[in-house]
Specification:
Blueprint lengths: L1 H20 L1 H8 L3 H6 L1 H22 L1 H4 L5 H12 L2 H31 L4 H28 L4 H25 L10
Helix pairs in contact: 1-7, 1-8, 1-9, 4-7, 6-7, 6-9
């Protein structure tokens, strides 16, 4: 159950909110003006919509169980692009993949909850999951800000988010492999 909580709700909210909150620091380290950084939000928004639509089609075709863990992969690509990229192009690639990372879970999470836990208590299940996502979103600006204040740089921030995404994706795939029937114990 708790592995599902982490990969379905906490990691996307933690990464997206934390990194976008520290836009001034990230734009400086990425070597772009804040104006250039802000201009890329249009790509973030467009690719969030595209990510939602594509993930919805993939869920309908393959199932949320198979699609949901992979919605974390764009976080890894976004962080790699910002960490290794240089200037405006690296920032553009970051925003494209971060938009996908923001949009894809919207289509996959509710469907995955229904597939994993059943629909009988879906409201109760979502009532547990969603506040934890909000909590992780509230926690990330403080934690990432603390790391920045302590002198940790771009490599640490990106490495942290990449590690969270990769470990959560692996945990999710292991959990789903252990439950091939599609329902977790106690699901109605």
């Amino acid at each position: 159950f708790w592995i599902g909580v982490i990969w379905l709700t906490m990691v996307p909210g933690f990464s997206v909110t934390g990194l976008l909150f520290h836009q001034i620091y990230l734009s400086e380290v990425a070597g772009v003006t804040l104006t250039t950084w802000a201009a890329n939000y249009v790509f973030y928004a467009a690719f969030a919509v595209i990510g939602t639509l594509v993930a919805g089609q993939l869920v309908d075709r393959y199932s949320a169980r198979r699609v949901a863990p992979h919605t974390l992969f764009p976080i890894t690509l976004a962080c790699l692009a910002l960490w290794l990229g240089d200037g405006p192009f690296g920032v553009l690639i970051f925003f494209i993949f971060f938009g996908l990372a923001s949009g894809m879970p919207h289509a996959a999470v509710s469907a995955a909850l229904a597939e994993l836990y059943g629909t009988r208590y879906l409201g109760e299940v979502k009532a547990v999951f969603m506040p934890l996502g909000v909590f992780s979103s509230a926690l990330s600006p403080m934690l990432m800000g603390l790391l920045i204040d302590l002198g940790f740089g771009m490599a640490t921030l990106m490495g942290l988010n990449i590690a969270l995404a990769v470990l959560s994706q692996i945990a999710a795939m292991r959990m789903l492999k252990a439950n091939p029937a599609g329902r977790l114990a106690g699901a109605a």
